[in-house]
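We now fix the convention by which a protein and its fold are recorded. These numbers are not coordinates but entries in a learned vocabulary of local backbone shapes. A record is reproduced here so that you can trace the correspondence yourselves:
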Amino acid sequence: MEYYNIGKDNYLNIIKIIEIMSYPLTSEKDGIKIKSEIMKSETLYHCIFQNKVMLVYKDHNEILNCYEIEDEEIVSKVRLSKNTDIEKILEEYIREKNLKK
């Protein structure tokens, strides 16, 4: 087996490509593509489309639930944040707006 030194930048680009390929939502110019077959139930997924945060999750009955957030401050925070911070941003938004039942 041969090993090649691909460099740190190439490695990070490859990781990003793998993440994109395995993520069930992609935002394209014509809309959002949803790969529901790779979605885990009760997991929240997001993407940004037309300056809105689009939220999608599949419930325990396999039904897709879709929501959008137009709040410019939230969209900006999500756009600039790391994936690990997005859930916290959304939870804070839900708490502030009293959206949780």
Notes: The mean pLDDT is 82. The chain has three helices and five strands. Residues 8-97 form one domain. Residues 8-22 form the longest helix (15 residues).
